[in-house]
Every structure is written in structure tokens, then in C-alpha cells.
Amino acid sequence: MNALPPTFPPAGSPMPAAGRANFGGAAASATSMKWAALQDAAAVVATLAGLEPERPSSEIRNFPAVIRDAGEWRRERAEKGIDDLAAIMEPGIAALLAVSARGADAGAPALALWREFHAARTALLALAPPAGDLGPRRSA
Questions:
Q1: Residue 37 CB neighbour total at 10 angstroms
Q2: Are 53 and 43 in contact (CB under 8 A)?
Q3: Residue 107 domain-assigned (yes or no)
């Protein structure tokens, strides 16, 4: 058994990465998964609204990667916005499915939810920096 005592920084010096946990790729992966799940949920809502589910554009598909490389303020707002959009979609889809299960027409409320989703997604996509404006270049 290795009985070496743990080492700590000198008193008064800041702890590395103090104040915010850095999950690196795991946080980016979670954002990508949430984003993909929202696109799948939107396809369900579109179908319930009687619309043809859209084929996501490259802007939509690449949004998590673009926002991951954007400035911290953009990334934080996008992550919060994705969480907010999921909080709208989850109960909305549950309500639509309950309406459909009772045999009622869910078309009008599904269309309303689709429009809300579309407006919120458009706002999130606007957080992506203009092409070529991702901040300082990184080199290996």
C-alpha cells in the first residue's frame, strides 16, 4: 500500500479550476444528445400537426459543435436555452399524446407547439457566431 500523504496547494493559492466543474467533452456530448432528442421530438410534433417532418439543415445538425467552440457566454446561453426548450417540449408532447390517445384531434395544439419550438430553435441558432468569428485560432 502506498502511504504517501496527499499534496495540497500552498495556503492562499487558488485551487485549480475552482468554482466550476469542467466536464469537457462530457458536457458537449450531453448538449449534443439533448439537441438531437429535441429534433426527434420536433419530428413527432410535426407529424401530429399534420406536417411533413423536416430534414435538418447542416446549420441545425452542426449547432452543438459550433456552439461548443464559440465563446463561453454563447455556450452557456445555448445550453440554458436547450434545457428550456426541452422543458417546454416534454410536457407538450405528453399532452399531445394524451389528446391523441383519447381519440381527439391533436392537430391544432401540435401546430402551436411546433411554432413555439421553431421560434425557440431559431433564437438558439442565432447564438452561433458568424462564420469565421469563433475567437482566437487554436493550434496544436
A1: 14
A2: yes
A3: yes
Mean pLDDT of the chain: 82
Domain extent, residue 87, equals 25-125
Kindly indicate the confidence band of residue 128, based on its pLDDT and cuts at 50, 70 and 90.
very high
The grid coordinates listed for 132 are 469565421
Is the pTM higher than 0.90? The answer reads: no
Q: Nearest-CA neighbor of 108 among 118, 96, 97?
A: 96
pLDDT of 70 reads 87
Provide the number of structural domains found in the chain: 1
Instruction: For residue 20, tell me if it sits in a domain.
Output: no
| Contacts of residue 133, Cβ cutoff 8 Å, sequence gap at least 6 | none
Query: What mean pLDDT do residues 128-135 have?
Result: 68
Rounded CA gap, 77 and 125, in Å?
11
* Residue 63 belongs to some domain of the structure: yes
DSSP label of 49: T
Query: Quick check: is 92 in a domain?
Result: yes
110: Cβ contacts below 8 Å, ≥ 6 apart: 45, 46, 48, 49, 50, 96
Residue 119 grid cell: 421560434
Q: Which of 12-21, 28-37, 84-93 has the lowest mean pLDDT?
A: 12-21
